[in-house]
């Protein structure tokens, strides 16, 4: 989690504490006001009693007439009734204040419950944001691994192109050697034809050159030996050609197996792409759930506006993660397209490679290179399987 997220969490926590303090402070003020009013009522009652007893004691100590005393009694009775009515009014006001205090206590309990619910909702949204951050990091690692796989495939393609060029050079060299051998064979055939003509001429002139018969016979034997040698060389060349052709067929079979392995790797890569699509669907569902949370929070009263602003910040962060995920998806699709193009180029080079093979030793070296490439692809496949398992 970065510094911005830590600051947002701190800010949200401070606002929640501040808001809870204000909410808890309101009932305290009401209780203080109620207690002050009760103290004022008690003080007024004490003052009234004190005045009443002072008046009675003053009247008792002063000798007055019966009429005056009667008037005083009536006034005192009226004053007592007034004080009693005031006392009753104060008692009613006390009951109303007690009811108001009870309502304030209930409201305080409701506000505390609502605050706890908002805390739980905020923690849920925070956990969801952390989960999205984890998914984004996972997708970023997967993109880096795909980029690494693409780089390895590109390096393999460059190696194949280099081998292709080397095979072309080797083909030209073998073609020149083959042309030289063909020219030499033509010369030998011409020489053999000349020797056959000379043999016929010797037969027609047998009587004429009878004295040189032994020499001609030796020359004929020599020519026969040369012919046998040429025939053995030709048979050897034929056998070498058959061996080379058999090696070529074996290498073509191995090459087809390598192509099948590459197709299997492509199918597994497509399976991973499907898995990534499923993850995107899950991500969209999370976005819908987030929108539903947003609709539920829109009904909160004006006193939760500060918490709603923090929630909107979380939403913006989630939208940023969605944008990053879409960018990653576009990069992944681009890598898939480039990988397919590279695979098509690789198949084209492999087709040309079949037509360019002419020598057994070069075919063997090429087979070793393809076997090494197969090993690298198997290693890449194992890595992809491990990443999928993880």
TrEMBL record:
Record-linked InterPro entries: Cenp-F
One annotated Gene Ontology cellular component of this protein: chromosome, centromeric region
Keyword flag Flavoprotein: no
Membrane-crossing residue ranges in chain numbering: 30-53
Coiled coil (residue ranges): 73-366
Keywords from the UniProt entry: Coiled coil, Membrane, Transmembrane, Transmembrane helix
GO molecular-function term, one example from the UniProt record: dynein complex binding
GO biological process terms, semicolon-separated: metaphase chromosome alignment; mitotic cell cycle; regulation of G2/M transition of mitotic cell cycle
Source organism, top-level taxon: Eukaryota
Protein name, as recorded: Uncharacterized protein
Organism listed in the record: Amphiprion percula
Upper lineage: Eukaryota, Metazoa, Chordata, Craniata, Vertebrata
């Amino acid at each position: 989690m970065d510094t911005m997220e830590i600051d947002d969490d701190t800010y949200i926590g401070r606002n929640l504490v501040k808001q809870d303090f204000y909410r808890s402070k309101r009932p305290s003020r009401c209780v203080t006001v109620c207690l002050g009013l009760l103290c004022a009522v008690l003080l007024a009652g004490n003052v009234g009693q004190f005045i009443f007893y002072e008046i009675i004691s003053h009247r008792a100590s002063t000798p007055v007439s019966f009429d005056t005393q009667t008037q005083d009694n009536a006034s005192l009775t009226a004053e007592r009734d007034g004080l009693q009515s005031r006392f009753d009014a104060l008692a009613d006001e006390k009951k109303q204040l007690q009811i108001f205090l009870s309502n304030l206590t209930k409201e305080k309990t409701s506000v505390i419950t609502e605050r706890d619910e908002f805390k739980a909702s905020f923690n849920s949204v925070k956990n969801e944001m952390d989960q999205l951050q984890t998914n984004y990091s996972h997708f970023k690692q997967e993109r880096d691994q795909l980029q690494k796989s693409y780089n390895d495939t590109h390096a393999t393609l460059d190696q194949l192109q280099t081998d292709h060029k080397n095979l072309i050079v080797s083909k030209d060299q073998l073609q020149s050697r083959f042309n030289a051998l063909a020219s030499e064979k033509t010369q030998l055939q011409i020489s053999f034809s000349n020797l056959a003509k000379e043999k016929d001429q010797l037969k027609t002139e047998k009587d004429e050159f009878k004295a040189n018969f032994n020499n001609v016979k030796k020359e004929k034997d020599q020519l026969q030996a040369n012919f046998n040698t040429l025939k053995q060389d030709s048979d050897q060349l034929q056998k070498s050609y058959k061996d080379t052709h058999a090696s070529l067929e074996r290498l073509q079979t191995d090459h087809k197996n390598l192509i099948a392995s590459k197709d299997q790797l492509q199918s597994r890569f497509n399976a991973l792409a499907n898995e990534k699509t499923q993850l995107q669907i899950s991500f969209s569902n999370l976005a819908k759930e987030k929108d539903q949370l947003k609709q539920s929070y829109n009904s909160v009263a004006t006193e939760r506006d500060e918490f709603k602003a923090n929630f909107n910040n979380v939403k913006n962060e989630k939208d940023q993660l969605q944008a990053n995920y879409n960018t990653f998806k576009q990069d992944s699709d681009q890598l898939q397209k480039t990988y397919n193009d590279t695979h098509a180029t690789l198949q084209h080079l492999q087709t040309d490679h079949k037509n360019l093979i002419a020598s057994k030793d070069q075919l063997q070296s090429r087979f070793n290179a393809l076997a090494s490439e197969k090993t690298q692809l198997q290693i890449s496949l194992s890595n992809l399987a491990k990443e999928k398992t993880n």
